[in-house]
Design a protein that fits this description.
By secondary structure, the chain is α+β, with helices and mostly antiparallel strands. It has helices at residues 2-7, 9-26, 35-47, 53-58, 61-88, 122-132, 156-165, and strands at residues 112-116, 134-138, 145-150, 169-174. The protein has a four-stranded antiparallel beta sheet, with helices on one face. Helix 3 (35-47) runs antiparallel to helix 5 and helix 6 runs antiparallel to helix 7 (156-165). It starts with a helix and ends with a strand.
Length: 177
């Protein structure tokens, strides 16, 4: 190949041109995330290669098509990068939030859903329910949730407060509006 390049001025000019194109693409420059600006800057850099008109005309059609395809590919890639950056900037609306569980109907008389520490004993649980004036109407579910109903006219907020003050209660919320 080296011997052929020494003997063939057309191939030598092609190689010089290809090296200039390679050097132009390899140069570190900041990327504009606006495809038109990046494409215009690339075109200006390619126009500044100072290839004499005779060398341009001697470029085989295949090389000219390859160069045009390379420029088009760069434009597409820059467009994809710009689109990716734009979506990451938060300009697109976020997807709505959906739970992966279904709401189950309330147990009869249910007013509170609660989760207790796994270390609580039955005696401690019954004492806590008596203090809160509550009873278990269903549960525990697979997630350890109990449905509780009042056994007196005590306000639900007061029962909730009693539950939440106890260290053995991990979660307690009213199911009432």
């Amino acid at each position: 190949m080296e011997a052929h390049l020494h003997a063939c001025p057309v191939c030598r000019a092609d190689l010089t041109f290809e090296r200039r194109v390679h050097d132009t693409f390899a140069a570190e420059t900041p990327i504009d995330y606006i495809p038109v600006a990046s494409l215009n800057r690339l075109q200006a850099r390619l126009d500044g290669l100072d290839i004499e008109p005779a060398a341009k005309s001697r470029l085989p059609a295949m090389h000219r098509r390859a160069l045009a395809a390379s420029i088009a590919a760069v434009a597409v890639v820059l467009g994809l990068i710009a689109a990716d950056r734009w979506t990451q900037s938060g300009r697109l609306p976020l997807a709505s939030y959906h739970t992966v569980t279904n709401a189950r109907p309330l147990a009869p008389g249910e007013a509170i859903r609660a989760v207790f520490a796994p270390t609580i004993t039955l005696v401690e649980l019954q004492k806590l329910l008596d203090e809160s004036q509550l009873r278990i109407v269903s549960g525990p579910t697979e997630a350890g949730v109990y449905s509780l109903a009042p056994v007196s006219s005590r306000p639900i907020a007061s029962s909730l407060r009693t539950l939440r003050e106890n260290a053995a209660v991990r979660f307690a919320e009213s199911t009432q509006p």
